[in-house]
Design a protein that fits this description.
By secondary structure, this protein is mostly helical. Helix content is 52%, strand content 5%. The protein has a single domain, classed as Alpha/alpha barrel (Glycosyltransferase).
């Protein structure tokens, strides 16, 4: 019955229709820069499809990711050996943020070293799998990724926005901690200590004046910090540090009803992101604040294109018109239908019941 309901939902249908036969989810079918599968986006899309009973699709995504990762095992082991021997690691040979839809990697200068996606993948797989993984390719891939996260969770790298290469980003470390906790359920206790050390690091260095901050050494907040509570459950909604963080996120980053990434954002003129606004709605829904969730989702729905598509970003009052113009001339219109945005709406709605 759940399946029948899910397939009537246009957002769910859209996600299912844009899964490559091999299992990858394309970031967006429209935008010139997005014909790839990001591990981060896919982890959230698979979780959304699990939430509405589309488990077979999520399973295909996880199997696809497992194969894509295992194909890079030699590189990963070389970096793990370098770290263990105290030699420098090569960021260009770490696991990439995105793959081609066939699971291969495109050589180039993309800011590919982003640890967070792999934490999110293990977290998503951990919620998908009923219990410990049986012996096989999925378990091998999960074990490799867990070992990778345990070694590199604290390594400065690009964040979820593919920015800030030299920084340690709070939501990246939190993603790694969530992934490592999932690894304990999937694989056993081997990486339990690394999970708790990563999380303790966030609590020690990612908190300034009682608020979770965007990155170690900074004072500003980032909308991705909402993920610490929903979905990663590293903190509860009533955790005092999280509550103060949420207040700051809403005070500083909600503009005209939509959520921006962070205050100094200039990408696409620093617009509001539908996936973040829906993610905030998801959190409020999980915390029992249905009215708040509904009003955020109403803003998201108001951004839909005539075909129902949800854009990645929309300009808001604080957007920089010069940057927006430059960006649009360079890249064309922003992604008009972003799978990750649709996934966050599906998750918020399913939490509302
Ligand atoms: C965003 C990433 C996202 C990717 C694909 C980038 O512009 O910064 O968060 O994973 O697009 O959607």
């Amino acid at each position: 019955m759940r399946h029948a309901i899910a397939t009537q939902d246009a957002d769910v249908r859209f996600l299912l229709e844009h899964q490559h036969p091999g299992g990858a989810y394309v970031a967006s079918p429209d935008f010139s820069q997005y014909p790839y599968a990001w591990v981060r986006d896919g982890a959230f899309v698979a979780h959304a499809l699990d939430a509405v009973g589309e488990r077979a699709s999520a399973e295909r995504f996880h199997a696809w990711t497992a194969e894509a990762v295992l194909a890079l095992e030699v590189d990963v082991r070389a970096q793990l050996a370098a770290r263990a021997a105290g030699r420098p690691v090569d960021h260009a040979r770490m696991l990439p943020a995105r793959f081609r839809l066939d699971g291969t990697v495109e050589a180039g200068d993309w800011p590919d070293f982003q640890v967070d996606g792999y934490g999110q993948w293990l977290w998503s797989l951990g919620t998908h799998a009923a219990g410990p993984l049986p012996a096989g390719r999925m378990r091998d891939a999960a074990a490799l990724v867990a070992t990778y996260l345990a070694a590199f969770w604290g390594e400065p790298c690009y964040d979820a926005w593919e920015e800030g290469r030299t920084q340690q980003h709070t939501s990246t470390l939190a993603s790694a901690a969530a992934g490592l906790r999932a690894a304990v359920r999937l694989l056993g206790a081997e990486h339990a200590a690394a999970a708790e050390t990563a999380w303790a690091g966030v609590r020690a260095r990612g908190v300034v004046d009682g608020v979770f901050v965007k990155a170690f050494g900074r004072r500003d907040v980032d909308a991705s910090l909402v993920w610490l509570a929903t979905p990663f459950a590293l903190v509860r909604d009533d955790d005092p540090v999280f509550r103060r963080t949420l207040v700051r996120i809403e005070d500083e980053l909600l503009v005209d009803g939509g959520l921006r990434r962070y205050r100094a954002d200039t990408f696409y003129g620093g617009g509001a992101w539908t996936l973040l606004t829906a993610g905030l709605a998801w959190h409020h829904a999980c915390a029992g604040r249905a009215d708040r969730a509904q009003s955020l989702l109403a803003w998201v729905d108001a951004q839909r294109r005539s075909d129902g598509g949800l854009p990645e970003q929309v300009p808001v009052a604080t957007s920089d018109p010069w940057f927006l113009d430059w960006w649009t001339r360079r890249w064309g219109p922003s992604a008009a239908r972003l799978l990750w945005s649709h996934a966050m709406v599906v998750l918020a709605r399913s939490a509302l019941g």
